[in-house]
């Protein structure tokens, strides 16, 4: 009896041990060494991880590495964690990276965890000097692709935690076609004057959470493109940067609706904009944007804290007099406090063909030079409750709110 119990106990222990044990693939085993190019090593480690029928973990230990463009593709047979503790540098010269759109790209898979205390360094300085954002909007295309740092395309039930994206040449992160995707404790850093370096941009994705993440960059900290649904942005610190933005939207006929966005408990510091929704005038898009809620937000010296801009038309790329066809409904701004860099703390410029419905301002207490900032509104009648400015005469969105080239 005693003997068989011991066998059963040790069998259970063994079974438990096997279940939690995962295959660990250190890139050094694939020839990846510090101060060398690890593109091949990571590619080979990925092949093994993706074919494994048990969970696996690829480890890139501390140290500095170089890496060219890479696509890490599924479908894979079991969950994969990629733990990056080192600093991985992209080639500084944009023309040297052979990849499409993103330098490091994860595609068509589920159960990915990207973790560690490491850094994806896009080495953007050379690209920033070459960038001519205005050219992009006049239809001119550069022959050199200015790549984003990280892409997650059609990746479900996955998360990014710990790691940093630094000095991306373009957007830091693109999330496209993902479901149940979480960023928690992620960091984005780039100079305040680096062009078009949005922190996290997403589109066509459902149930994306950006939590406890610090973003300091040269463009929008977070931008939500068309087809964003059930999105939570919470505990995000943004600055420098252009704020947290829904849009720009409506430029194309192929766009999908945006619905269910909550931006909560975020702090913006010395950013150009705070929270913003932007749509294109003089454009064919007829989508709806609904259930967008901004609450418990602190603005520290934010030039334009609250903006709805349905005349978003950077670089004079269109005629502002032709109204946007994008319909905005159920948008709330609640418990928003702090300081504005402009007298107009709230600017709501809606479309004259499809005015905004269901806009609420509740406890919006933003000060400019110690006095309550004012609200300017067109084609919208917000419900104002608690301490919040009532709408004054219609106003235009300040030019500073439109500096960034759109997506
Ligand atoms: C991700 O989820 C969507 C929606 O459930 C599904 O259509 C798609 O096939 C999934 N993709 C992968 C790679 O599992
Ligand atoms: C969502 O993704 C997380 C990983 O970030 C996973 O643990 C969780 O099970 C997923 N939820 C569902 C409903 O699949
Ligand atoms: C406010 O931010 C601007 C840059 O946007 C900066 O020049 C200025 O010094 C800041 N003021 C305070 C009081 O922090």
From TrEMBL:
Where does it reside?
A: Secreted, Cell wall
GO molecular function, a single term = polygalacturonase activity
| UniProt keyword rRNA processing, yes or no | no
Alphabetical GO biological process terms: carbohydrate metabolic process; cell wall organization
Q: What is its main location?
A: secreted
> Which residues act catalytically here?
242
Q: What SMART domains does UniProt report for this protein, alphabetically?
A: PbH1 (SM00710)
Q: Where is the signal peptide?
A: 1-22
Q: Which UniProt keywords apply?
A: Cell wall, Cell wall biogenesis/degradation, Glycosidase, Hydrolase, Secreted, Signal
According to its UniProt record, which protein family does this protein belong to?
Belongs to the glycosyl hydrolase 28 family.
- Protein name, per record: Polygalacturonase
> What organism, scientifically named, is this protein from?
Medicago truncatula
